[in-house]
Amino acid sequence: MKKLLDFITAEMELAFRTAGYDASYAKVTLSNRPDLCEYQCNGALAAAKAYKKAPFLIAEDVAGNLQDNKILSSVEVVRPGFINLKLAPMFLAGFLNEMAFSKTLGVETEKEPKTILVDYGGPNVAKPLHVGHLRSAIIGESVKRIMRFKGNQVIGDIHLGDWGYQMGLIITELEKRKPDLPYFDEKYTGEYPEEAPFTIGELEEIYPTASAYAKEHEEYREKALEATYLLQSGRRGYRAVWQHIMNVSVADLKKNYEVLKVDFDLWKGEADVQKYIPDMVEMLKEKGFAHYDEGALVVDVAEEDDNKAVPPCMILKSDGAALYDTTDLATLVEREKLYSPDKIIYVVDKRQELHFVQVFRCAKKTGIVRPELELKFLGFGTMNGKDGKPFKTREGGVMRLENLLREIEEEMLKKIMDNRTVETAEAENTAKTVGLAAVKYGDLSNQASKDYIFDVDRFTSFEGNTGPYILYTIVRIKSILNKYMDEVRPSQGDVDYDTHVGDEDRKACRIQEPASECEKALMLEMAKFNEMIDVVYEETAPHRICAYIYDVANAFNKFYHETKILAEEDEQRRAEYIELLRLAKRILETCIDLLGFEAPERM
User: Which residue of 54, 219, 296, 382 sits 20 to 30 Å from the alpha carbon of 67, by its own alpha carbon?
Assistant: First the structure.
């Protein structure tokens, strides 16, 4: 389905050509003065120099070809040469009806769907999720949903940190505490226990204890490094401990991500790609891409037009150990081999940008990936407290993610119970739904690359540009639709409008010309949906969805306050209002689904 702006631009291009001017000057934009017009074209100003003619005269020539236009109801020339446009109400209504009968609300899906892999999450096993993991999870989940909405095959990969020094620390500390476990007996040949020798709570305490002790005791640190080496070399008992760590950690991670409504198609980690490293390193040597520099094996990736120095991509340290560069390159080897994606999007802290520049360049230069594979770095900024510093607990420590979510839920529950409109059990469930929306919207409404202030009071407010405000608007629409159903089909009891009104009913009552300026304003906002989605898709920019639904919500609430919807005496007009609301609900619910949250039935 064409975008609204495309229809208007096509009319403007025809008008310019008919008047004898080049159609390239017919660019149409949203008006920056909505009090005067809805769209505008400033092409006459640009054309004036080329045609040596006053812009006002050019604009008048063009406007003369737009009279009695079915798409535009008003065309006005304003000095020095602006062309102000208003959309024809009947055309606008027809556009919305076409949206209403489209499964994708008028969004055109990819004619040739791509395979896109989204790398997000990136937690280390054996550690609790904390607020530092929030942005990657929330942004990555939204990006995945946006890519899928456009018809692509999208694969989400958590990319676990599961193969480093932390594993050696845990093994060393566990052996120190429980030396009699069979995992530490090299002569043991039997089956290892199926049950892990620790709980998730114990595991999360073991790692920081071991890490702190290793910093103060060199002998302990050396033993942990040795354990890491033996694990990676395949020592049987250590591999069994590692598998326990993975099982316990992943089960807990899945539980936490489920609360966030974030899910992954792949639960792969650094361990999965170790098997690719030897052949990859050998290829880099044989083909002359890699060379030794002070004992380390590196690949030069600097380019002549670099504005700042880009160091070589380090493949192996001087002691032969692999690094993050190595693992990320091996991950690309595996992704090419197993999935052959057209695009990979990395949702990662923006402070890692240089690392990914090195990895991407190395992968392209050495043929690890195909030349046509698009590698995109989507770097995100820091989530800060009100003091402008990275978000911490009141005691100054890193806050666990589950504790942050619990605080938000408690704040939402308090506000919901203050209204005294729902029972406690329902209020608790609603608080979880609205609390998650508050967190996700609060994050996603900011451009990913920007740092932002995590303000609990503001994010949980039912007023302003917040998740609760958006949900309250959706719930208000649901309430009106359900009340309408109670009136027109009372015998069916408490039913959902969408479920019980079929396409034939809706064809008999289509959206009609707006009866007021506030209704037209709402319709204009709704009509921007497919254009907005395409911009979000091209720019990988979920924050634009937030900006859009805030505008739609504001337009709806103004319409609601100025219009007697259910009290409208003209039954046909009232039914038309209901169809408009139904479409608004679909648009808003589609948007929040792309952002990764949902609306409750009541608030």
Answer: 54
Residue 160 near residue 267 (C-beta atoms within 8 A):
yes
Q: Strand 343-349 relative to strand 115-119: parallel, antiparallel, unpaired?
A: parallel
pLDDT along the chain (603 residues), means of 10: 96 98 97 92 96 97 94 96 97 97 97 98 91 94 98 98 94 97 95 96 94 97 95 94 96 95 97 96 97 96 95 94 94 98 98 97 98 98 90 76 92 85 84 96 97 93 96 97 85 47 55 96 98 98 98 98 95 95 98 98 88
Contact 521, 527 (CB under 8 A): no
Which residues are CB-neighbours of 460 under 8 A, at least 6 positions away? 408, 411, 412, 415, 435, 438, 466, 468
CATH T-level topology, domain 4-87:
Gyrase A; domain 2 (3.30.1360)
- State the Cα–Cα distance between residues 435 and 57, nearest whole angstrom: 57
Give how far the C-alpha of residue 285 lies from the chain's centroid of Cα atoms, to the nearest Å.
Answer: 39
Q: In what order do the strands lie in the sheet with 290-293?
A: 290-293, 296-299, 313-316
- What is the spatial distance between Cα 404 and Cα 348, in angstroms, rounded to a whole number? 21
Please state, in angstroms and rounded to a whole number, the distance separating the CA atoms of residues 345 and 140: 9
Classify residue 426 by burial, with Cβ atoms within 10 Å: 0-12, 13-18, 19+. middle
For residue 492, the model assigns a pLDDT of 46
**Residue 224 burial (CB count, 10 A):** 24
The answer to whether the Cα torsion of 287, 293, 297, 300 is positive or negative is negative
- CB–CB of 95/103 below 8 Å? no
Can you give the pLDDT at residue 294? 93
Tokens of residue 464, six digits: 């302003």
pLDDT at 444 (0 to 100) = 98
Which residues have a Cβ under 8 Å from the Cβ of 233 and sit 6 or more positions away? none
Rounded Cα distance, 559 and 483, in Å: 18
- Cβ-based neighbour number of residue 378 at 10 Å: 21
Asked whether the CA dihedral 365, 370, 372, 373 is positive or negative, the reply is: negative
CA dist 51 → 11, 18, 42, 43 (Å):
21, 15, 15, 12
What pLDDT sits at residue 320? 87
Return the half-sphere exposure (C-beta side, CA atoms, 13 A cut-off) of residue 348: 21
The three-state secondary structure class of 251 is helix
Distance CA 237, CA 228 (A): 12
Domain assignments of the chain as residue spans, ordered by start: 4-87, 165-259
If one counts every other C-beta atom within 10 angstroms of the C-beta of residue 419, the result is 10
566: CB partners within 8 A, 6+ apart: 480, 483, 484, 487, 574
| DSSP letters spanning 168-214 | HHHHHHHHHH-TTSGGG-TT--SPPPSS-SS-HHHHHHHHHHHHHHH
